Amino acid sequence: MATRSLTRVLSMRERVEDTLSAHRNELVCLLS
Known about the structure:
By secondary structure, the protein is an all-alpha fold.
């Protein structure tokens, strides 16, 4: 059970990092 919640947290963090990197790319395009 702990493993399942840990996997969920890791996948959530991965998704957040993907979103942040995508927004960072958009910001770089806008600012440059």
